[in-house]
């Protein structure tokens, strides 16, 4: 999907994909793929990347981070936020996938204004970002790891499949519950069960694997 299409779908200004390779003797190497304005190229500075609070969060966690000015102010880098905000980096969402051989894949979306005040809208953006990133993880694992032996797909219930299909459409567990006329807690349980049966660590990875196995389309 071209940069322009993806940013328009999520209604954001820029996207950033960063591959980080750690070295035991000389820190980390960073490789950027982005539609960041050329004027903001200083953001790729190695020394700054070593202390950036968003990158540091992603390097040590797989949980998405919703960031804004406070994220940088609390890290003592408020001046840096003021500088990057001029180029459209006002707020955003980022997450990481940690791959073999000390490699990390960071993916983020950046907005030139505050994120929506509606927490459900932010949750939707985060869910869509997570799903897109898992597609990248699936490709990366195919390249980095030997192929898995073919096995018969697990048996998923109708509700588990429905939950995965709506998650594929970017719906949150709360929205899945509303669509299926069940509680959010029940929707979460179906998604957790589906992920467990598919031997996946989260619902987004389960969606990709279910698609690969032909369980959902």
Written description of the protein model:
This protein is of the alpha+beta class. The protein has 2 domains: 3-144, Beta-Lactamase; 158-212, Winged helix-like DNA-binding domain superfamily/Winged helix DNA-binding domain (Arc Repressor Mutant, subunit A, Orthogonal Bundle), CATH 1.10.10.10. 47% of the residues lie in helices and 18% in strands. It has helices spanning 3-10, 46-49, 53-60, 69-74, 78-85, 119-144, 158-168, 173-180, 184-197, 203-212; strands at 14-23, 27-34, 65-67, 91-99, 103-111. Strands 2-1-5-4-3 form a 5-stranded antiparallel β-sheet, sandwiched between helices. Strand 4 (91-99) and strand 5 (103-111) form a beta hairpin. It starts with a helix and ends in a 5-residue tail after the last helix. The model has no long low-confidence stretch (mean pLDDT 79).
Give the arrangement of secondary structure elements.
Blueprint: H1 3-10, E1 14-23, E2 27-34, H2 46-49, H3 53-60, E3 65-67, H4 69-74, H5 78-85, E4 91-99, E5 103-111, H6 119-144, H7 158-168, H8 173-180, H9 184-197, H10 203-212
Antiparallel strand pairs: 1-2, 1-5, 3-4, 4-5
Helix pairs in contact: 6-10, 7-9, 7-10, 8-9, 9-10
Protein name: LuxR family transcriptional regulator
InterPro entries: Sig_transdc_resp-reg_C-effctor, TF_LuxR_autoind-bd_dom, TF_LuxR_autoind-bd_dom_sf, Tscrpt_reg_LuxR_C, WH-like_DNA-bd_sf
Keywords: DNA-binding, Transcription, Transcription regulation
């Amino acid at each position: 999907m071209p940069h322009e299409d993806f940013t328009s779908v999520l209604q954001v200004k820029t996207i950033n994909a960063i591959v980080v390779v750690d070295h035991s003797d000389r820190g980390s190497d960073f490789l950027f793929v982005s539609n960041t304005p050329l004027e903001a190229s200083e953001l790729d500075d190695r020394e700054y990347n070593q202390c950036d609070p968003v990158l540091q969060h992603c390097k040590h966690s797989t949980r998405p981070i919703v960031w804004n000015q406070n994220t940088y102010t609390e890290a003592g880098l408020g001046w840096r936020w003021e500088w990057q905000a001029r180029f459209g980096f006002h707020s955003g969402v980022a997450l990481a996938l940690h791959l073999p051989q000390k490699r990390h894949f960071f993916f983020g979306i950046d907005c030139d204004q505050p994120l929506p005040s509606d927490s459900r809208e932010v949750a939707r953006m985060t869910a869509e970002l997570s799903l897109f990133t898992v597609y990248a993880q699936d490709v990366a694992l195919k390249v980095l790891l030997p192929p898995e032996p073919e096995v018969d797909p697990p048996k998923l219930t109708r509700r588990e499949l429905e939950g995965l299909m709506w998650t594929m459409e970017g719906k949150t567990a709360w929205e899945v519950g509303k669509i299926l006329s069940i509680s959010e807690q029940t929707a979460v349980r179906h998604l957790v069960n589906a992920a467990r049966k598919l031997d996946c660590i989260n619902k987004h990875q389960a969606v990709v694997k279910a698609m690969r196995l032909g369980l959902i389309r």
